[in-house]
Write a structure and sequence with these properties.
By secondary structure, the protein is an alpha/beta fold. It contains 13 helices and 13 strands.
């Protein structure tokens, strides 16, 4: 009764492009009452486009060549957007002798013998390198560059919500998942802007990977919370592992995120989170029906047999017949 129900639920989910790594996660997702979303690549397309380029110390062409050299090995959507833009401008990469990735901040490298920092505003702030004030107030995603400890220029990029992002939040609320929050490494102003468009009340920006992990740990520690985290990046892997149910985007998602997650959405549609919860709840209902039905029929036949009203045929039905009914009932979920 129980395994058949979960096999049916896993099959139904896989048909919808949702992969559960086991029946225990199908059961765990039915208890989820809190969902935390990463922003970039999860609720947004992750397809950034460069809108503005400004350089102060060197020609724009040299700035783009430096950015191309540093960012071309990164899989982050922002880095890929910078590389696409630089290549369109026919930029030529420069020689890199050393490079260090700074989690949640950016990259430090030695390019043509000069120290180069490329990343977000926090990276330059930590190195006490001043940047123009208007960059801190910008609602666009900002990539800044410093050369030999001095601000050299920046790029502004824009991102867009996925087509079903707003619907994903609405469907979760329809399932009585009221506690929904947005976690992002982007500036708070950008996160607030997206949260308002999505209808999400809780939005937290300027978060490093360890900040996200600490927030999820606090949520999971609350006895009345069952937390699902939805993410796609390599930096999201620890958070996916910490949550009660980790859900990764399988298309744009990194291998580390997919490996750490309990559920993988192959289509990269955030609305599939609500669908996964619905399938989990339907599966739990069918499993309960199978258990109650099987035990109920057996008890009835046992009692009838004790009073002489059941024959061998009723006993066969209580055994083999009930098994067939459980199979047919479990198949129903595939048609839902």
């Amino acid at each position: 009764s129980v395994p058949l129900g979960y096999f049916g639920g896993i099959g139904a989910a896989s048909r919808a492009g949702i992969l559960f790594k086991g029946g225990n996660y199908l059961d765990a997702i039915t208890r989820v009452n809190t969902v935390a979303f990463d922003k970039t690549g999860t609720l947004t397309t992750g397809r950034f486009e460069v809108t503005t380029v400004e350089s102060t110390e060197i020609p724009v062409s040299d700035l783009l060549s430096i950015l191309l050299s540093v960012e071309r090995k990164s899989t982050h959507p922002v880095a890929q957007a910078v590389v696409r833009y630089a290549e369109k401008q026919d930029s030529v990469p420069m020689e890199i002798t050393d490079m260090w990735e700074l989690a949640g901040h950016g990259v430090e490298a030695i390019v043509n013998g000069r120290q180069v920092l490329v990343g977000n505003i926090r990276l330059l702030a930590e190195r006490d390198i001043p940047v123009p004030k208007e960059l801190s107030d910008s609602v666009s995603t900002v990539v800044v560059c410093a050369i030999d400890g001095k601000y050299a220029g920046h790029l502004l990029l824009s991102d867009t919500l996925k087509k079903d992002a707003v619907d994903a939040i609405r469907r979760l609320k329809d399932l009585d998942v009221k506690d929904i929050c947005l976690l992002s490494g982007d500036k708070q102003e950008i996160v607030n802007q997206f949260a308002e468009r999505l209808g999400v009340d809780k939005a937290y920006g300027n978060l490093l990977p360890e900040d996200k992990a600490a927030y999820i740990e606090r949520l999971t520690a609350e006895p009345d919370k069952s937390v699902a985290f939805v993410g796609d990046g390599m930096n999201d892997a620890p958070v996916l592992a910490l949550s009660d149910v980790g859900i990764a985007m399988g298309g744009l998602g990194s291998d580390a995120a997919i490996e750490s997650a309990d559920v993988v959405i192959q289509t990269d549609q955030p609305s599939k989170v609500a669908e996964a919860i619905s399938i989990g709840r339907a599966t739990r209902s069918i499993v309960r029906q199978n258990i109650v039905g099987s035990i109920g029929v057996k008890v009835i036949v046992l009692v009838a047999g004790a009073f002489g009203f059941a024959t061998l045929w009723e006993a066969v039905f209580a055994d083999v017949g009930v098994s067939l009914l459980a199979v047919l009932n479990s198949i129903r979920i595939l048609k839902r």
